[in-house]
Specification:
The protein is of the alpha+beta class and about 300 residues long. The protein has 11 helices and 7 strands. Strands 1-5-6-7-3-4-2 form a 7-stranded antiparallel beta sheet. Helix 9 runs antiparallel to helix 11. The longest helix has 19 residues. The C terminus is likely disordered. It holds the Pfam family HODM_asu-like.
């Protein structure tokens, strides 16, 4: 199994904004997991629709704008993925979400800043759509260390959203989880309990063998007609032990270990890594050391 993206190699630090320009042609990612990801989306829409979709009624025009942008993009880059027979009665954002692996979130400017006005979110990374829907950015980010209301980062994000125009930008995030689930919600209560109890989540002597690394490829762009901001989230989920086959595993494993060591107590609690950080670091350093030994020239 190959790992597509490794932002934990030092190129994208956790708990930073880290926006970078992205060519429009690279907006959507498609890989061999597409059929499995879309099947999981269809299951979630069938079994728990209220958990994975929410919309303000006034967002229908903006949702259609998203769908048309996506269709134009697919026609130019992935014409074989254009859907046929889409149900016009379905919300356009849901239709868009069932065409590609990305989730789609619409942010709209209001009196209290940018709020989450609509979303098709099948693959949340430790947050709950129901709890965040309709809330402004500052409140959405309240649990994130150094990103809550009145923090410098919260003010920076608001200004960035205000200034965002037609350009496409990208940022990365990563986390570690103890299962291969794409649908990975977490309520505020569950997060608080986890931070207090600090349970171990990766059993066994080799913590890396029980962990999965979850990478979020996030893009933002302002919609030209509605003025809303479209936030896309593409999940890549790999067993951490797959790093052992990465061509640069020594560098990547060592970098991930160092980034885990740099997390402070609040950041560790937020990511649910407090009890396991040292064991994960030891596993990653052993992985890096083995590579160094294997590649060393004979004496």
């Amino acid at each position: 199994m190959s790992i597509a993206h490794t932002p934990y190699d030092g190129s994208s630090k956790p708990f930073t904004i880290g926006l970078r320009p992205l060519p429009l042609g690279e907006w959507i990612e498609v890989d061999a997991n597409r059929d499995a990801h879309l099947a999981e989306k269809r299951r979630l829409f069938a079994e728990r629709p209220a958990d994975v979709f929410a919309e303000e009624p006034e967002t229908q025009a903006a949702q259609r704008e998203v769908l048309e942008l996506l269709r134009d993009h697919l026609a130019n880059h992935f014409p074989h993925l254009l859907e046929t027979g889409a149900d016009p009665a379905e919300p356009p954002l849901k239709t868009a979400s069932l065409m590609v692996q990305e989730d789609f979130v619409l942010m709209r400017r209001g009196d209290d800043g940018w709020r989450l006005a609509a979303a098709s979110l099948c693959f949340p990374s430790s947050w709950s759509l129901a709890e965040k829907f309709g809330r402004p950015l500052a409140d959405i980010h309240q649990p994130v260390p150094q990103f809550g209301r009145a923090t410098r980062n919260a003010k920076l994000i608001e200004r960035m959203f205000d200034k965002l125009q037609g350009q496409l930008v990208i940022r990365w995030n990563w986390s570690l989880q103890n299962n291969p689930d794409l649908y990975h919600p977490l309520s505020g209560t569950q997060r608080d309990e986890r931070a207090i109890e600090r349970p171990s989540r990766f059993p066994g002597d080799d913590a890396a063998a029980a962990a999965f690394i979850r990478v979020e490829r996030q893009t933002l762009r302002k919609l030209p007609l509605s003025g809303d901001i479209l936030f896309t989230i593409r999940i890549h989920l790999d067993p951490l032990k797959a790093l052992r086959k990465h061509p640069d595993k020594a560098v990547v494993a060592a970098s991930l270990a160092e980034q885990l060591l740099e997390l402070d107590q609040h950041q560790l609690d937020y990511k649910g890594l407090t009890a396991d950080r040292d064991r994960l670091v030891a596993s990653l350093r052993a992985m890096a050391a083995l590579e160094g030994t294997a590649s060393a020239p004979p004496c």
